[in-house]
Amino acid sequence: MDTVALRRAVWNGSIPCRIELDPSESRVFDAVGPYFISLPRMSYIPLYMAEIYRFFTPFLIDTSVSCLENAWLEFETVPLKCLLSFAEFMPVRYDRHWPVGVLYDLFTGRDPTVTSADEEDEHSLPWKLVLRFQNFPIKHIMRIDSGNTFQGAAFARNGHAKAVLGLSKSESNKLWEALQFHNFDHFWNINEKILSETVAGPLRSFSVRVYVPSTPRVIQQPIPPYVDNNEPQTVGTALNSLLPELFPSKRTPVLSRPVIHGVVISMSTPLIELFPIAMYPDGFLHITLAMSG
Amino acid sequence: MTDIPRIPEDIEGGNLDLPVTLSASVLLTSLPRDGQRALQKAAHPTPTKVTIKFKAMGSAPMLNKDTYKIKTSQRFENVAVFLRSQLGIGPADSLFLYINFTFAPALDENVGNLWNCFKTGEELIINYSMQSAFG
C-alpha cells in the first residue's frame, strides 16, 4: 500500500461504542436505552458529545445541572481523559486531549493479536461507556474559566510549533473543520503542509508518547530521527531508549509489543516512515503496549 | 549547583494519577513473573532532579529565588501549589502558569515529560501571571 492508502486506513479506523446514561442521572433509572455510535480512532470525544447529549436529554433529571458542559464519559468508572470539557474544546486546544484510539487501546489493555473469539465478553466490542454529569472529575478533565482562553497557545511542540503556528488563520480553521467533520482529504491537505515543512527543515525530532500499561505513567519525549551511527531510528531503538525495562532488546519484543492504532507494529519499522502515516492529529505518535503473556 | 533549593514533594499529598481500569489491571495478574517485574520497574523509574526557573509576567510579584530543583516524578500541580505558597497568595486568587510563554500544562502532567520536551538549555522555564495571558 502507498502512503495515502495507509493514511486512509488509519483515518478510517473506528471504535463502535455503546453509551449508557448513568442510572443516577436518569429520570427513568435504567429504562433508557443505550446510544450506539462509531467513534473514529483519530478523533476526540468532545467532538461527539453534543450528539450523545442530544439523545439522552429527554431522560435527564435536571438539564440545568446535567448540562453539556458537565458531561463526560467513563469506562469501568475511570473517566475518559479529555483534559478539557466540551465547552472549552477549541481548535487550538485539541492537542491536549487524548485521542479515542489511544483511550481505547490503553483503557481496555486489549491485545490486538487476540482474536475476538478468544476474548472474554467484557473486552468485546462495542466499547461500553457510561455518560455522567455529577462529580465532574476536575483533576482529569480540566475546566478552564471563560477568561482563560489562551488561543494560539497550545502548539509549543518541538519541531512542530513553527510549522503549525505558521499556518494561516484559514488553514488552521480548515484543519479544525476537517477534524470536526472527519474529512480525510481536508485534514491531510493541511497536515501534509505541516509535515513537509517539518521534514524539509532540519528535522530535529519526532514527538512520541508511550503509555506504560496498567499504570498512569506516560513517557513523552522528542526522539531524534537517526541514532548515533546515522542509522534510522526504529520503533525498537526508540522504545529501548525510552523504556529499557520493558524493551531490553532493540530488535525483538521480549516482554512487550508496541501497538499503534490498535495494530502491533514491527520493532524494525523506521520512525521516519511510520510517523507521516501513523501520527495523530495532535502531531504525536502515540504508542500503547501489549504485554506478552 | 548544590545550593539550588528543592521543591518539596506532594505538598498537599493529593494523588492526581488517573486510576487504572479494571480491564487494564487484570492484565497484570496474568503476566509471567519477568513481565510483571519489568512493568513494576517501568512504572516507577528512579526519578532524577531537573531545574525549573520561574519568570514573572505582567504585574505578578517576583520571587526572591527563582530557580529550583524538582524531581522528575512530580506532577505539575505540585509546582503550582509551591509557587502559590512562595508568592503567599490564597487559594481563591488566580494564578496562571505557562511553559515558554505559550501554553498551560495540565495539572497532572509529569514534570519530567515537560522538562524533556520543553526545556530551554537545561532549565524548564515557567512563566506565571496573576491574569490570564494569551487570550
Automatic annotation (TrEMBL), chain A:
One record GO biological process: autophagy of mitochondrion
Domain of life where this protein originates: Eukaryota
Autophagy protein ATG5 alpha-helical bundle region domain mapped to chain residues: 153-196
Subcellular location: Preautophagosomal structure membrane
UniProt key word Transport: yes
Main localization (coarse): membrane
Record's protein name: Autophagy protein 5
Gene source species: Pyronema omphalodes (strain CBS 100304) (Pyronema confluens)
UniProtKB/TrEMBL annotation, chain B:
GO CC entries: Atg12-Atg5-Atg16 complex; autophagosome membrane; phagophore assembly site membrane
Keywords: Autophagy, Isopeptide bond, Membrane, Protein transport, Transport, Ubl conjugation pathway
GO terms of biological process kind: autophagosome assembly; autophagosome maturation; autophagy of mitochondrion; glycophagy; piecemeal microautophagy of the nucleus; protein transport
InterPro entries hit by this protein: Atg12 (IPR007242), Ubiquitin-like_domsf (IPR029071)
Topology in the lipid bilayer: Peripheral membrane protein
CDD domains: Ubl_ATG12
Source species, domain of life: Eukaryota
GO molecular function: Atg8-family ligase activity
Compartment list: Preautophagosomal structure membrane
Primary localization class, coarse: membrane
Subunit description: Forms a conjugate with ATG5.
Family named by the database record: Belongs to the ATG12 family.
Function of the protein: Ubiquitin-like protein involved in cytoplasm to vacuole transport (Cvt), autophagy vesicles formation, mitophagy, and nucleophagy.
Name of the protein this chain belongs to: Ubiquitin-like protein ATG12
Source organism (scientific name): Pyronema omphalodes (strain CBS 100304)
Biological classification of the source: Eukaryota, Fungi, Dikarya, Ascomycota, Pezizomycotina
